[in-house]
Design brief:
alpha/beta; seven-stranded mixed sheet; 7 strands; 9 helices; 15% strand
Length: 314
């Protein structure tokens, strides 16, 4: 009897556990089926190794759905990934053109998940172009960080391999040979020697100047220069004042008038001296005539009438 009771208890426990398991499976399946989710699809142009149906879909790190199916696209060059996305997240994706789907690694396990996040620059323009109709609303994708690094490395490798290394090496050798020949030229050696002598001469001149100016006190001269500059600035400031400028202009006008009067006086004095010179000349001529012929003083002819414009006497 004890053995039969124990068997009954074990069987009852197994049946209860099975019922609980079936109920949980039914509840989980029903919750998934009844959840408010929307089917969307994205296409990747790279390997999706590590991504499986049931993998997470995250919106900026927040769980937003899961991967439903993974298949090859109708053009057989892209990978089609169907996603079950929460309705509220789907609304955000529809209204934001900067959101892109991207493959990300889940730690160091090698597993991957789909991350939906904002992108900028070239990442927005690297979405694959579709030449077929998608079965659901499409989320544009962008290459993963690993794919971007791999693409950059491939581009660098292509650029390096495109370089003509033999020609570059030959050019470098030719340049080195030319430089060696130039340095061996006697004229270059003479120029270098002259530069060395010039440098030594400049050093000696510098040392002599330092010796000459060692005992010279520069500070007093600088202070006097500062004082002179200050006085000059003060004088210019006074000249800029209106009253000083007016007086200076009036004084200059007076000097100008006096200069003009002096000039007129000198011109008049010169004319008077010219007249006196001519009168003395005429008197000297008359004296000579009287000395030679005294009778002409009484019996000479009358003088000719003076012509207009003639300043002398005849």
């Amino acid at each position: 009897m004890a053995s039969d009771a124990r068997k009954f208890q074990v069987g009852l426990f197994v049946l209860a556990a099975a019922a609980i398991g079936v109920g949980a499976a039914i509840w989980l399946g029903a919750s998934r089926y009844l959840a408010d989710e929307i089917m969307m699809v994205t296409y990747f142009s790279e390997s999706v190794q590590g991504l499986d149906p049931g993998s997470d879909v995250k919106f900026r790190g927040v769980p937003a759905g899961r991967v439903q199916t993974i298949a090859i696209s109708p053009d057989q060059r892209l990978i089609e990934v169907a996603l079950s996305i929460k309705a509220d997240v789907a609304d955000v994706i529809r209204n934001d053109d900067t959101l892109r789907a991207q493959l990300q690694l889940a730690g160091i396990t090698g597993l991957r998940y789909v991350e939906i996040d904002h992108q900028t620059g070239d990442a927005l323009r690297k979405s694959p172009r579709l030449n077929f109709a998608a079965p659901h609303e499409t989320i544009p994708s962008t290459p993963s960080s690993f794919a971007a690094i791999q693409e950059a490395l491939e581009e660098i490798y292509d650029n390096v391999m495109a370089m003509d290394f033999p020609k570059i090496s030959a050019d470098i050798r030719a340049t080195l040979n030319s430089a060696d020949q130039l340095l061996r030229d006697e004229r270059v050696q003479r120029i270098l020697s002259g530069l060395a002598e010039l440098s030594e001469s400049a050093s000696r001149v510098t040392r002599n100047v330092e010796k000459i100016t060692a005992d010279v006190e520069v500070a007093p001269a600088i202070e006097e220069l500062r004082q002179v500059t200050t006085e000059a600035r003060g004088f210019l400031a006074e000249l800029r004042k209106e009253d000083v400028g007016g007086r200076l202009r009036a004084t200059l006008d007076d000097f100008g008038g006096a200069a003009r009067s002096t000039q007129q006086f000198v011109l008049g004095l010169r004319e008077t001296i010219d007249r006196l010179d001519r009168s003395l000349g005429n008197l000297e001529t008359l004296t000579d005539d009287v000395s030679r012929q005294p009778s002409r003083l009484l019996f000479s002819n009358p003088p000719e009438p003076r012509r207009e414009g003639d300043g002398g006497t005849r």
